[in-house]
Design goal:
heterodimer; A: D-Maltodextrin-Binding Protein, domain 2; three-stranded parallel beta sheet; 12 strands; B: mainly alpha; MetI-like fold; 2 domains; two-stranded antiparallel sheet; 13 helices
Chain lengths: ~375, ~300
Amino acid sequence: MDRKDFIKQLRRYQKGSISRRHFLGVTGLGTATAVLAASMPHLLTRRAFAAGELGDQVNLTTWPDYHEPKNFEKFTAETGVKVNITVFGSNEEMFAKLKAGGTGWDVLVPTNYTIETYVGEDMFEPLETALLPNYDPKFYTDARFTAPGDVNGKTYAVHKDWGTTGFVVNSAKVTEKPTSWKEFWDLTNGAHKGRTMVHDYQLTTIGNALKYFGYSFNSNDEKELAEAEKLLIDSKPNLFAINSDYKPSLINGDAYMSVCWTGDGKQLQKTDPAFQYILGKEGGEIWADFYAVPKGAPHRAAGYALINFLLEPHVNRDEVLFHGYPVADKRVIDLLPKEIISDPILYPAAELLAPLEFGAAATLTNPARAEIMARFKSA
Amino acid sequence: MSAGTATIAVPAVTERKQSGRWLTALLLAPSAIWFFVLLILPLAVVLIYSVGVRAPAGGYQAAFTFDNYLNLPARWTAFKNTLTLAPLGTLICLLAGYPLAYFLAVKSSARWRLILLILVIVPFWTSFLIRTYAWIFILGGRGIPAILDAMGIADVRFINTPFAVMCGIVYAYLPLMVFPIYVSLEKLDKRLLEASEDLGAGPFATFRQITLPLSAPGIITGCMLVFILLMGEYLIPQMLGGGKVFFIGNALVDLFLQSLNWPYGSAVAMGLVVIMLVTVTLYLRATAATGGRRDASLI
């Protein structure tokens, strides 16, 4: 087989029009690998999965644009397990779906402040870290990004990445150079009516309305929440939309500003440098996302294999390059190009990070916050 | 003797009746079970939930209170949106669908009719979700507003307005209106139209007195189909309303999936059920009354 023929077969295999077995067969790679493996057993460092051991699929529940698709192809090629993905717009919704039961999820990606509640409701299993050789706590740079995964001394979730919640501005349209949440809301209700989006997510939407008044992002104080609700309901006619999937509307020019997460800010700026990601100087949210396995996961072994695969430093580096969120894993940071490490969107200056707050568990279950968000949406 | 035969015959008749009843019951059983398990039982659960309270971490906790019902006015805007946009959408579908159905059934040639009917169905071959996504682009900043902008009409916004939701509704529900009307018009006896003309009625009078009353069953069916489905609509306002045009369906999804307030969600759902029962009953009564009058005048 010549080189051209080989590439042709490879493309067919990548597209899925021929099976892995067929590909290895026609290219002779299968035989070559077998011969190599037999003569050099020390090459077999990666744990080999016998066919069928992991099943043929795994269900991952995560956030939009949050994984490098090629990594999943690689995982499927290595293990024969197909990755099915479900995405959500808010932790509340993810929690509600899992609580209702019958989801069939194997791996999910909860945010720091929710883990305690999941564990309290007996919905997560303590992770069998022996099945996650790529997870090693000693490589994590900052305990704040890993600690929420441990509840009552047991590890229920392992660190995926972290980030901030600021806002994104299309500077070609909004020339006022806002630097604070106060300006964000004032522009929404002033010069740029009908051009702002907020998340369909109580934590960030209510939290950043609270920030307008300088209150804590996590406030559950009745009077402060009432003020935030009034701002939200008064602003509603001037919003473009309430939607956690804000990139399409920003890119096609319908919206000029939106509450925004780090990685989306990075992805938008890559698309068009006019997009600027801003951390309100009053503060706002800093967060970390995790991988967890729900109790009764139908493809439990495949779920662990997937988490372990995604934590492999080279795989994880490709994830970061795709989604644009920083990680706390030293091994991955060492593999990242310098312009990513020094990118002010991913790794903001310390004085901007200082006033940020991690979401508090109480906000997830507080009925007052849930009802304010629901009233705001139905107003 | 005759009395004797009668006494013999009687059990035979009741036996036949009995077996007939058994057969009827047997034939009805699947749908009865279906309705009981999938309609009556869930409705009972919703009713019980609606007088409960929200559990601390969300969900349902047993209680007996009418607070959820007293709190219904907090969703007034969603009720108002649904109760204005659903009837309006039904009306626009009727006004747009009737001429189309009339053309298909009465005016088009037999050769073209099949092709045209297929064209009405063709959109169903693509996922509804994808077609609604297409509307996001048509109505979004780079769609029609961009064309209007090039023509000198600047700063027109469609997406995330009631107008956008209405476009999506009429687009999606039009076939549901067209088909029942088409069926009722297709059966229309054309000799009645000729008779009407012979008796000196103009086209408008013929339409008003012959065509419209005879197609009334199709109109009623079409309107019911569209209206009932629209009252529970969720996807179109979600996608084309951007969270700014909120239906009861959206409020329900929010209450169950975001707020985890199942009892309040159940109360809102019961509110919707009651409104539907009342409006549909009133509508059927009104149309039955007018339909009856027209039947009488026709004969």
